[in-house]
Design goal:
about 210 residues; alpha/beta; elongated; 11 helices
Length: about 210
């Protein structure tokens, strides 16, 4: 199990509560690897998308059994709320559930969460390890992009100002089967706009 997975699951010790309410604006709990481990531990994750539909599921499959001393469909239920304002949830849920806040901003506080949200979830494990090892101070949006380029894709846009350097990097990415997320390709294009490669479609070539 990776440090990323362990960090998320740390907030969900077994046998602590049958009902959990999680503020999860970045949908971290819906990652299939996280879901698999939670299910193996007896947790079921149910997104809160429709109040009536959730109420039916909660009452029929879980709460009725719990009131009778049974375990229900699973040992514990996690209400996954894709937002931060839990106060819009029904009062009885808030009274019964154990509440947890889970977000990219909480897990990687030194990086800009607005940038992180534009990165594919497959990169989060690597990025979490890099954050813990190399992020020594809080970084704004621009420096967060530089951090991601360096630690995820091993690219320094400031070293691509010459055509030969730029094309070597483009073909290197192509050879590795790597494409940059649009937010990072745009950042590189902006840096190179006033250089010898500024006339090229840099963003399109990198993404």
């Amino acid at each position: 199990m990776t440090s990323w997975t362990e960090r998320i699951l740390r907030d969900f010790p077994e046998d602590l509560s049958p009902f959990w309410i999680v503020s999860d604006p970045d949908n971290l709990l819906l990652d299939e690897r996280i879901l698999q481990v939670l299910r193996s531990r007896g947790f079921e994750v149910l997104p809160f998308e429709d109040s009536i539909a959730f109420r039916v599921e909660y009452e029929e499959r879980y709460r009725t059994a719990w009131d009778k001393g049974a375990s229900g469909t699973s040992k514990a239920l996690i209400l996954q709320y894709p937002g931060t304002n839990l106060n819009i949830l029904p009062w009885d849920y808030l009274q019964a559930g154990r509440k947890v806040d889970l977000s990219l901003a909480d897990l990687m506080p030194k990086l800009s969460s607005s940038v992180l949200r534009q990165i594919d979830g497959a990169h989060l494990e690597t990025l979490f390890a890099a954050h813990n090892s190399f992020a020594s101070q809080v970084l704004g949006e621009s420096l967060t992009k530089e951090f991601l380029l360096t630690h995820l894709f091993e690219i320094s846009p400031h070293l691509l100002r010459k055509p030969e350097s730029f094309w070597r990097e483009v073909f290197g990415l192509l050879y590795r089967g790597v494409v940059l997320p649009p937010v990072l390709a745009q950042h590189v294009a902006k840096i190179l706009s006033d250089t010898a490669v500024g006339h090229l479609p840099v963003e399109e070539l990198l993404s």
